[in-house]
Specification:
- The strands form two sheets. Strands 3, 4, 5, 6, 7, 8, 9, 10 and 11 form a nine-stranded mixed β-sheet that branches.
- Helix 9 runs antiparallel to helix 11 (309-347).
- A hairpin with a 2-residue loop joins strand 9 and strand 10 (173-181).
- The chain folds into two domains: 2-49 and 257-390, no CATH class; 71-239, no CATH class.
- It is α+β, with helices and mostly antiparallel strands.
- The protein is built from 13 helices and 13 strands.
- The longest helix is centred in the C-terminal third of the chain and has 44 residues, at 251-294.
Length: 392
């Protein structure tokens, strides 16, 4: 305890120099915690996005190079997934989309995404019905002029008016609103709530083509995704002609890949920030060497009265570790403050550094102090008493 007390007194006596010495450690620890926490926030943001759109999904994209000569396999594909793959899947929906303008009297919305789906669209895309009804198989068969709208579309067009039964113009054609979805993405412009879904069988009237090129398959569990992809791959290879290409995408794999990239990025950034810690350690070594020079006479007196080398080494190592430890604590304070500010600004989340990273950063700052303080401590302990006492 006496060594710690002496170290604190030495730091207090030279506050400015001590702070500048600790600055590298403060910046290093703060930067490590902030960077790692921000990347963790990116991962949380990715997970939240995939939770909103739903997990365990397979995207099927078909490219009909020869649209006039290639047979449309939409109905057969839907029947195959709901039939032979029904034990592993919760449904399949066409998932083509387009942009346009929605109007209800004087109100307009030109940011909404217009999806062409079927009665399983909401289940496949993780939407929950709020009011009214969803699309039905009869709507598909009859090419009904009906739609289900997201919460932002309902808010932007109708305000406090109940939208059920009202007609909205979608690119000039009147559609009756039969249902609304609960908000799941902040009910904001351009969000996942800024959507309207119409029967996919209306595609010919909209785009002069009834060919559907994009589908979403909802799989029951993550463990069954690969099996579903394998089955779809085999079925499609047998059904499409040579002029047609298709692509199957595991959306779970996309999420895992995105999280892996951000994790790798966090390690790289943490490594870069750790360089500041090493620079801080070099600063500690330099200042401890200066301290040894300044306190040469003190060291000589201690050795003259019988102080062992281990006592001198311990004294200077403790001073170096206290110096770096205080820097580490200040760095942690900066890391927590910076993480809160950046997390709120970038992700609207309360982000705090992981306790494991915090403890590791603090211990690393201590190790830096001890490691870089060892040489000055050994040098101090090696001074000869007579020579030390002669020092000015």
């Amino acid at each position: 305890m006496s060594a710690v007390k002496m170290a604190l007194e030495a730091i207090r006596d030279k506050k400015g120099r001590s702070f500048l010495t600790m600055l590298g450690v403060i910046i290093g620890v703060g930067a490590v915690l902030i960077l790692v926490t921000v990347v963790n926030g990116m991962n949380a943001d990715i997970e939240a996005y995939y939770e909103k759109i739903g997990v365990n999904k397979v995207s099927v994209d078909i490219n009909y190079k020869n649209r006039t000569g290639s047979a449309d396999i939409s109905e057969d594909l839907i029947a195959y997934v709901n039939g032979e793959l029904g034990d592993m899947t919760a449904g399949i929906t066409p998932d083509d989309s387009m942009t346009g303008t929605l109007r209800y009297y004087g109100a307009a919305n030109d940011t909404a995404t217009i999806y062409l789906g079927n009665e399983q669209w909401s289940a496949c895309n993780n939407y929950t019905l709020n009011k009214g009804r969803d699309l039905t198989k009869m709507d598909m068969d009859n090419r009904s002029l009906v739609c289900v709208i997201g919460s932002y579309v309902a808010e932007s067009l109708f305000g406090y008016i109940d939208p059920l039964g009202q007609s909205i113009a979608i690119n000039g054609t009147q559609y009756t609103v039969v249902g609304t979805y609960y908000g799941k993405d902040g009910t904001a412009e351009g969000s996942l709530d800024d959507v309207v879904v119409i029967p996919y069988t209306r595609s010919r009237a909209i785009s002069q083509s009834s060919t559907v090129t994009s589908f979403t398959v909802k799989v029951n569990t993550a463990e069954e995704v690969d099996a579903v992809i394998s089955s779809l791959d085999y079925w499609l290879s047998e059904e499409v002609d040579s002029s047609t290409e298709y692509e199957l995408t595991n959306l779970n794999a996309q999420m895992t890949e995105a999280e892996g990239e951000t994790t790798s990025l966090s390690l790289i950034l943490a490594g870069v920030a750790s360089i500041a810690l090493i620079v801080g350690g070099i600063g500690i070594m330099n200042i401890m060497l200066v301290t040894v020079t300044e306190r040469t006479r003190e060291i000589g007196i201690k050795k003259a009265v019988g102080a062992k080398r281990s006592v001198i080494i311990t004294q200077f190592l403790v001073e170096a570790s206290v110096l770096s430890g205080i820097g580490g604590l200040l760095g942690i304070l900066i890391g927590y403050s910076g993480s809160l500010v950046i997390g709120k600004a970038l992700y609207d989340l309360i982000l705090l550094p992981d306790f494991g990273y915090t403890a590791a950063a603090f211990l690393f700052s201590i190790v830096i102090g001890v490691g870089f303080g060892l040489y000055p401590a050994v040098k101090a302990s090696g001074l000869q008493p007579v020579e030390a006492l002669r020092a000015d």
